[in-house]
Amino acid sequence: MKIGIVSDSHGSTRAIDRMLSHPAAEGVALWLHAGDITPDAEYLAMVTEGKAKVRYVAGNSDWPEPGARYDDVVEAAGHRIFLTHGHMYGVRFTTKMLCDAAGESGCDIAVYGHTHVAEISTGHITVLNPGSVARPRDVMQGSFLVMELEQGKAPACHLIRFA
Ligand SMILES: [Mn+2]
């Protein structure tokens, strides 16, 4: 199963469009948006309707809405993915709290955003940050992630940077 991971689009539906038109986005069956901001995730769901599912959480720049989720657990291809923006787990300093929360939720993958800096860390828990698709701090252009997930296998993750 091909999963697309995106975060921190901060109102740029243009960045979402650019991501969707990238060849790496082809065949994505599930998109995860790690927050900032939820209307972008709703836009993503609208434009991929019938092709992909979208799961998302709220970030620190999201106006708290009734029913807004800050953490979610997504089950896919025999894996459990802990999805959160990260601002409540101190991710600017360390992902230890994030990994602890993911482990307590029985997850083998943790996805976060917030820092606008991409990360792929493998270990007991695979830790993923797609960077910001619109306002990166680590590169000039935005980035997102694609992940191939198969039951009983370690996830194969690829960071996609816009040229
Ligand atoms: Mn944020």
UniProtKB/TrEMBL annotation:
The keyword Hydrolase applies. InterPro entries: Calcineurin-like_PHP_lpxH, Metallo-depent_PP-like, Phosphodiesterase_MJ0936/Vps29. Residues 1-151 form the Calcineurin-like phosphoesterase domain. Keywords: Hydrolase, Metal-binding. Gene3D superfamilies: 3.60.21.10. Belongs to the metallophosphoesterase superfamily. YfcE family. This is Phosphoesterase. It comes from Mitsuokella jalaludinii. The lineage of its organism: Bacteria, Bacillati, Bacillota, Negativicutes, Selenomonadales.
